[in-house]
């Protein structure tokens, strides 16, 4: 049986403000298996982004443990956490954050070069992902020359460029119209499955959430329900 690619164990996170302490994550537990796509739904301000930040090793929890491929990460030095994040985790946000001076292919090649991949292999990988996402003819277009849906598909390709174990997506279709949202999500789902990764996708779009393998409902810093097909 496959081991989890992402496991959150009793994650706690509190932010201290001038007025009060804000308990954002309260003993969160979650397991993602290879090839699984899990929806994360909940009201604005419920802590979804904080959960993604903890899962993506962007923030250290106050207590609890984040395991990537069975390896604990909370007490890792920053250098090792950064290496794990670059190697094993991909991120997609509501806004694509593509580099405007580079074309679609170059935006996907760049993170691979940073990871030490050769130019030739990085270009081959970029072209493969662009083909999977139906963007081969747009490879040499800069972000300003692409539609919103095309830009977001390039962002998905960039997030998957280094074949991460985990894809974390924060409202990846939140800035798109319904038809484009559906197209982008299908591209994300198909590509994640082809890669054998696991994805945790925060969304307000219940139509999109219903197409995932299961849904985690998040409120008041806690996972309150699991649903599935």
Automatic annotation (TrEMBL):
Instruction: Give the GO terms filed under biological process for this record.
Output: lipoprotein localization to outer membrane; protein localization to outer membrane
Task: Please give the SMART domains that the UniProt record associates with this protein.
Answer: AAA (SM00382)
Q: Which InterPro entries match?
A: AAA+_ATPase, ABC_transporter-like_ATP-bd, ABC_transporter-like_CS, ABC_transpr_LolD-like, MacB-like_ATP-bd, P-loop_NTPase
Instruction: Cite a single GO MF annotation.
Output: ATP hydrolysis activity
Q: Which domain of life is it from?
A: Bacteria
* Alphabetical UniProt keywords: ATP-binding, Cell inner membrane, Cell membrane, Lipoprotein, Membrane, Nucleotide-binding, Transport
A GO cellular component annotated for this chain's UniProt record is:
plasma membrane
The record, for SUPFAM superfamilies, names: P-loop containing nucleoside triphosphate hydrolases (SSF52540)
The protein's matches in Pfam families, at most eight in alphabetical order, are given as: ABC_tran
Coiled-coil ranges per the record?
none
* PROSITE patterns with a match to the protein in the record: ABC_TRANSPORTER_1, ABC_TRANSPORTER_2
Domain (ABC transporter): give its ranges: 6-229
Similarity remark: Belongs to the ABC transporter superfamily. Macrolide exporter (TC 3.A.1.122) family.
| PANTHER family the record matches | IMPORT ATP-BINDING PROTEIN, LIPOPROTEIN-RELEASING SYSTEM ATP-BINDING PROTEIN LOLD
Designated name of the protein:
Lipoprotein-releasing system ATP-binding protein
